[in-house]
Amino acid sequence: MKILVIENERPAAEKIVKLLRKIDKSVSVIGVIETVEDAINRLQDKPEPDLVLMDIQMPVMSGLVAAEKIRALESSTNTHVPIIAITANAMIGDKEKCISAGIDDYISKPFQPSALIEKIKKFI
Length: 124
What we know:
Layout: E1 2-6, H1 10-23, E2 28-33, H2 36-45, E3 51-55, H3 63-75, E4 83-87, H4 94-100, E5 105-108, H5 113-121
């Protein structure tokens, strides 16, 4: 499984990557992207990941808007890459906002590594 991590805070991204490398030898991190714009461009040019882990609170463009743009891109190619939102937003209704934007699953920060692994396993 090839996973793309979209996270603007380097320490958080490194923590996620370290966790992913422990999951399974068949999991590979194909990139860590720090801006949503770069992520959309990459997915448009090279739609290769099997799963995207995306922070929702990103500068310039939120992860919710990014998810909507990614889903719009996919509509022309009949593809669907699962997106798991990783966010500090843990208020009532935040999960529903993610799902309505086209995000497949949601986990709030701080999260237990085992909880993220369980969410990822749903898509393996």
